[in-house]
Automatic annotation (TrEMBL):
The lineage of its organism: Bacteria, Pseudomonadati, Pseudomonadota, Alphaproteobacteria, Rhodobacterales. GO terms for molecular function: DNA binding; DNA-binding transcription factor activity. This is Gcv operon activator. Residues 5-62 form the HTH lysR-type domain. Keywords: DNA-binding, Transcription, Transcription regulation. It comes from the Bacteria. InterPro entries: LysR-type_TF_proteobact-type, LysR_HTH_N, LysR_subst-bd, WH-like_DNA-bd_sf, WH_DNA-bd_sf. The keyword Cytoplasm does not apply. Belongs to the LysR transcriptional regulatory family.
Length: 328
């Protein structure tokens, strides 16, 4: 079997053919002229053809040499381009991310500056959209989605636990006065988020709080809108501490019923095709997200302890707010 020519031979040959002399080729390759001559002679022996015509110190390509030069020049250019591309890939990553709108604005957005500072060379695109990603049709690496984790065909990884309780402004709580929870809720406006997994009907039934059938309610399409109404003193909102923790920590919102549990369940999920987990950008982002969630959980538990609040774990069995929820 013929021996495969040394790849260095092709490199030396292409450089000589391009530069015109062995001396100039040797200078470009940072080797001695004799080393270049030796590689050319060896390549000619291995191929069994003459590549150059020698007339004193002048060199010209033979027909076979011209054919090899065209091929080797193209191949080496492709290798150089590939090397440059790989070098850029090592330094720069692109991450396309989609998130649920209120979560993106209230939780993820304030933390993204830390991610950008850690990875200044990364290209980041973040979309806040109510509908999940269609990964078969959209160029998206990862979706952080609010729900129960039932996304058929995709990898779904729970990243943040939801903590739900009734909250209102201190001024609104003072207007309601003290009393049993049912009596307070009968006097209050109850603010619901239309897309929330845990809404007032379930919370009242689960906690055993009895209210009048004709209670006053306000339904908002977004959690951020519902929270703003509560901050403005317009009622009591049943909301997530993933979204409302800063307001609770600062005292702008307060618990209405500290004697009743804060309901906890997995609610925010990282979703993508399983193949996307092989992408370094996705793995790095999920690692960073884990760090942010750990810091959030630490702050959350400190705030809960300060208010004397306690937790109760539940499992959501349906994405519909009226679906059955089991206590664990």
């Amino acid at each position: 079997m013929p021996r495969t020519p040394n790849l260095n031979g092709f490199l030396y040959f292409e450089t000589v053919a391009r530069r015109g002399t062995i001396t100039r080729a040797a200078e470009e390759l940072s080797v001695s002229p004799s080393a270049v001559s030796q590689q050319i002679k060896l390549l000619e022996q291995q191929l069994g053809v003459r590549l150059f015509r020698r007339d004193g110190r002048s060199l010209s390509l033979t027909l076979e040499g011209e054919q090899l030069f065209q091929t080797s020049a193209t191949a080496l250019r492709m290798l150089r381009d590939a090397r440059r591309h790989l070098g850029k890939t090592r330094e720069t990553y692109r991450l396309n991310l989609r998130v649920s709108p209120s979560f993106g604005v209230r939780w993820l957005g304030p933390r993204l500056s830390d991610f950008v500072a850690r990875y200044p060379d990364w290209d980041l695109r973040a979309d806040a959209a109510p509908d999940p990603t269609d990964f078969d049709r959209e160029v998206m690496d990862l979706d952080i989605r609010y729900g129960t984790g039932h996304w058929a065909g995709y990898h779904a990884q729970a990243v943040i636990q939801d903590h739900v309780l009734p909250l209102c402004s201190p001024q609104y709580l003072a207007e309601l006065g003290s009393g049993k929870p049912g009596e307070m809720f009968d006097k209050a406006r109850l603010i619901d988020s239309a897309r929330a997994l845990c809404q007032w009907d379930f919370w009242l039934m689960h906690t055993g709080v009895e209210t009048e059938a004709n209670r006053k309610t306000i339904l908002m399409d977004r959690s951020s809108m519902a929270l703003q109404l509560a901050l403005d003193g317009s009622g009591i909102v049943l909301e997530s501490l993933a979204l409302a923790l800063p307001e609770l920590a600062e005292g702008r919102l307060v618990p209405v019923t500290p004697a009743l549990p804060v309901l906890r369940f997995p609610a925010y999920w990282a979703i993508c095709p399983a193949r996307n987990l092989n992408r370094r950008a996705v793995r790095r982002f999920l690692g960073w997200l884990d760090e942010q969630v750990a810091a959030h959980e630490k702050e959350l538990h400190a705030v809960l302890d300060r208010h004397g609040l306690f937790l109760e774990d539940i499992v959501l069995e349906s994405e519909r707010p009226s679906g059955r929820i089991e206590q664990t």
